UniProtKB/TrEMBL annotation:
It catalyses: NAD(+) + NADPH + H(+)(in) = NADH + NADP(+) + H(+)(out). This is proton-translocating NAD(P)(+) transhydrogenase. Its EC number is 7.1.1.1. It comes from Erythrobacter litoralis. CDD domains: Rubrum_tdh. One of its GO terms (molecular function) is proton-translocating NAD(P)+ transhydrogenase activity. Residues 4-138 form the Alanine dehydrogenase/pyridine nucleotide transhydrogenase N-terminal domain. Residues 147-310 form the Alanine dehydrogenase/pyridine nucleotide transhydrogenase NAD(H)-binding domain. The lineage of its organism: Bacteria, Pseudomonadati, Pseudomonadota, Alphaproteobacteria, Sphingomonadales. GO terms for cellular component: plasma membrane. Pfam families: AlaDh_PNT_C, AlaDh_PNT_N. The transhydrogenation between NADH and NADP is coupled to respiration and ATP hydrolysis and functions as a proton pump across the membrane. It comes from the Bacteria. Keywords: NAD, NADP, Nucleotide-binding, Translocase.
Amino acid sequence: MKIAVLKERAAGETRVAATPETVKKFIGLGNEVAVEKGAGASASITDEAYGEAGAVLGDAAGCVKGADIVLGVQAPDVALLSGAKPGAWVAALFDPFQQNDRVEAYAKAGLEALSMEFMPRITRAQSMDVLSSQSNLAGYKAVLATADEYGRAFPMMMTAAGTVQAARCFVMGVGVAGLQAIATAKRLGAQVSATDVRPETAEQITSLGAKAIFAEGLEAAGEGGYAAELTDEQKAKQAELVSEHIAKQDLVITTALIPGRKAPVLVTDAQIATMKPGSVIFDLAVAQGGNVEGSKPDEVVVKHGVKIMGYSNTPAHLPADASALFARNHFNFLSAFWDKEAGAPMLDEEIGDAIRLTKGGEVVNARLKG
């Protein structure tokens, strides 16, 4: 089979869907791998490194021509894929709920779109889960960016000139990104607390040395390990808890997302106004509407003396590691279903039906049709 890897064209996207490591592994399965020249430049991967791994380098059209599989970080425009084989697979991030036109275009072009963000959260798919691998890095980067913007130190420091008090950091949302944010803030010496709407996360919070902050009787666990949308009564309870706690914090990291929905607002303007001047809030959900009232992607907004920030694509700020993990997710996914006799991957029903958006000229995913 021929596997094509194109240069990412979305604004601000620095990652690449394959590395020399995974190129070599794909070739080991008997495939030809074509990589567009310059595809890895922003992730510090040279064309020479791809060539040494066995990839064929060329322009986009040459790489796609006759391709059976196209790998991407963000799904490429259909216009770039005109030379691919009929029914070719395209595995990438599609943002299916927000990018309906793109999904329809893939169906019309006869391509099989495989949405990597729809990978089911089951044990055997953990190594294929791009959302987890990228969220892990995002949680880490969020804390580093916050530390850089914060005008004080994180750890307590006892000096001859006096004591510097440790920063207080509050993490809202304890998924993969939130857990990494807790761990990173602790390593930097902050006093860390965290909250979630899923009570079972309390043990995870305390195991990392942070203080668990929960509203009594609040529970909103959803499918696949995600939080569910809160009722109005639950929102009021959570807002009361946050209002009491956030006024004492120097740093806040918000991470709450609900698949297919606008990000829930966790921090209001009134709550921001209670924080100390010079405090910093990092909104990891800013690209999906934001957890923080008034946050804007890739801007530092100052409200009531508090700095509010967030990146539209946080993993892209760590392109080398983010690319390495994303590329391994791709390889783990395809190699898990590789049929040696057929020389091609054969998706099973559980994972195939979960991630397949289009096939045979139609949109086939139940989550999009429902």
